[in-house]
């Protein structure tokens, strides 16, 4: 009579799944010792399956996780402003659902901007935005503040075509009629304004153009709000490889905050936030009114200046 081996029985009782049998064969080479020096590196796939993350992921998982965590951290007034947007889904953005609202990153930023500016927006009758993109901030402000009498967009001609079409779709006819579209080459035609806005575009301009816009703001505005990167960074620092040097140099030489730093080093970020606040001061009669980190990207900064 053959006596069964209890260890064999336990091996079957606690057997690995077919998934892990396959993974064991794919990930581990049993003919050699596992090289501990780099098995958790971004080039290796081993730790991507041992842990719940991977530095490179072709899915929307990490983007949506950032968006979801950010949205759930917002204060109650965020949702008050967001629900007044109306149609914020034109263009099929990626959404998460929080407080029974579909939230996308573009308009999450817009409401962050409104919260940062909410002490002056009710008293800003005339607003100018330099480089409005597709128009998310225009849309958010006009739908939340009836006190705005005119909103001027200064932009490149192709972007004006996009923003004019988009805003006509998402705004009421009365709010759309408040918008004035000015080509960048005609920027000096702008009249006196209460608030000038620049979001994520001055850093993509030639330095001379940046200074020309700051001079325009200095002579025409009472407040200036900026939300832009405080520095430059190398493509390699975020895992982008094989970028031609000439392409990197082109980007690195734009804007006024051109220092290349590690954007995941808090000490460096703290130092260059102070530099950013000084660099974008429009003129000698201006003071920094308010400044804070622009989450989730800590190398971006909100800053509000007052004349």
Structural class determined from secondary elements: alpha/beta
Please identify which CATH superfamily of the largest domain we are dealing with.
Vaccinia Virus protein VP39
State the helical fraction: 25-40%
Mean pLDDT: 92
User: Assembly state here?
Assistant: single chain
Strand content: 15-25%
The CATH topology of the largest domain: Rossmann fold
Quantity of strands, as a count: 9
> How does the overall form come out from the CA principal axes?
globular
The residue ranges in which pLDDT falls below 50 over 5 or more consecutive positions are none
For the report, how would you describe the main beta sheet?
7 strands, mixed
Question: Can you describe this structure?
Answer:
There is one protein chain. This protein is an alpha/beta fold and 307 residues long. It folds into two domains: 21-58, no CATH class; 68-306, Rossmann fold. The protein contains twelve helices and nine strands. The chain has a seven-stranded mixed β-sheet with strand order 5-4-3-6-7-9-8, sandwiched between helices. A two-stranded antiparallel ribbon has the order 1-2. Strand 6 (193-199), helix 10 (207-220) and strand 7 form a beta-alpha-beta unit.
List keywords for this structure.
307 residues, alpha/beta, Rossmann fold, 2 domains, seven-stranded mixed β-sheet, two-stranded antiparallel sheet, 9 strands, 18% strand
């Amino acid at each position: 009579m053959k006596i069964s081996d209890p260890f064999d029985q336990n091996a079957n009782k606690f057997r690995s799944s077919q998934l892990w049998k396959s993974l064991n064969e794919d990930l581990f080479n049993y003919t050699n010792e596992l090289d501990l020096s780099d098995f958790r590196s971004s080039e290796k796939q081993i730790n991507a399956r041992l842990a719940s993350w991977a530095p490179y992921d072709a899915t929307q998982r990490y983007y949506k996780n950032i968006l979801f965590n950010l949205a759930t951290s917002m204060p109650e007034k965020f949702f008050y402003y967001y629900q007044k947007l109306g149609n914020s889904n034109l263009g099929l953005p990626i959404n998460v659902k929080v407080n029974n609202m579909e939230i996308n990153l573009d308009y999450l930023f817009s409401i962050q901007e409104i919260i940062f500016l909410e002490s002056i927006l009710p008293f800003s009758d005339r607003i100018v935005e330099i480089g409005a993109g597709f128009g998310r901030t225009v849309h958010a402000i006009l739908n939340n503040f009836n006190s705005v009498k005119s909103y001027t967009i200064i932009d490149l001609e192709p972007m004006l075509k996009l923003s004019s079409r988009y805003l006509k779709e998402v705004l009421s006819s009365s709010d759309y009629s408040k918008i004035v579209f000015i080509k960048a080459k005609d920027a000096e035609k702008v009249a006196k304004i209460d608030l000038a806005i620049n979001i994520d575009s001055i850093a993509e301009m030639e330095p001379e153009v940046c200074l020309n816009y700051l001079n325009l703001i200095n002579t025409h505005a009472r407040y200036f709000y900026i939300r832009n990167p405080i520095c430059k960074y190398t493509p390699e620092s975020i895992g982008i490889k094989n970028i031609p040097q000439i392409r990197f140099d082109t980007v690195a030489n734009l804007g006024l905050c051109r220092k290349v730093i590690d954007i995941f080093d808090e000490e460096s970020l703290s130092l260059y936030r102070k530099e950013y606040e000084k660099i974008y001061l429009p003129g000698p009669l201006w003071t920094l009114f308010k400044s804070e980190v622009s989450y989730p990207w800590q190398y971006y900064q909100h800053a509000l200046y007052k004349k």
